[in-house]
Amino acid sequence: FQLRHRIREELGKSYAPSASISMPDFSDQGAITVMVETAPEDADAVAREIQAVGAEMARGRIDADTLNDVRTPFLEQRRQARSTNEWWMNALDGSAQDATNLNDFLTYEGIFASLTLDEIKTYAAKWLVKPPVVAIVVPTPRPAASAASGR
């Protein structure tokens, strides 16, 4: 929510910034990935803004409205996905040998819905203070067509 507000609405540097999180089972590590399409000349400023949002969240600048602005559509998307064959195929994958994946799929929404604002702030303070790995990918300029090539 904050990324969209700051990068899209305030700066006008991207239409649809996105963020995702990966937290493998039985691990104390994970990854938060933020992807933004922007003009190459804006990439550094956008990267700084992403880091500023993360730093603010690490300092506890998260409120209940922001949490609900993220949680409500996310849970609705998960509920809708549950009615698809793809969701069930992924949920059942490997479940005959190990029911962990199936259990995760079946309990994820309830766990996510039950997270409190204080828990989110605690996790943000723990994970978002670490220095990020930043990768900026810009296209290689194509050489201009020459008059001699007939283009």
Secondary structure blueprint with pairings:
Elements: H1 2-10, E1 18-22, E2 31-35, H2 43-58, H3 64-81, H4 85-92, H5 100-114, H6 117-127
Antiparallel strand pairs: 1-2
What is the structure about, briefly put?
By secondary structure, the protein is mainly alpha-helical. It is built from six helices and two strands, in the order αββααααα. It has helices at about 1-10, 45-60, 65-80, 85-90, 100-115, 115-125, and strands at about 20, 30-35.
β content, as a range? 5-15%
Alpha carbon gyration radius:
20 Å
Percent in helix = 40-55%
The overall average pLDDT, rounded, is: 88
Number of strands: 2
How many DSSP helices? 6
Q: SSE order in H/E notation?
A: HEEHHHHH
Q: For the report, how would you describe the main beta sheet?
A: 2 strands, antiparallel
Enumerate the spans where pLDDT stays under 50 for 5 or more consecutive residues: none
N- to C-terminal distance: 45 Å
For the largest beta sheet, what order do the strands appear in spatially? 1-2
Helix/sheet category: mainly alpha
Shape: globular
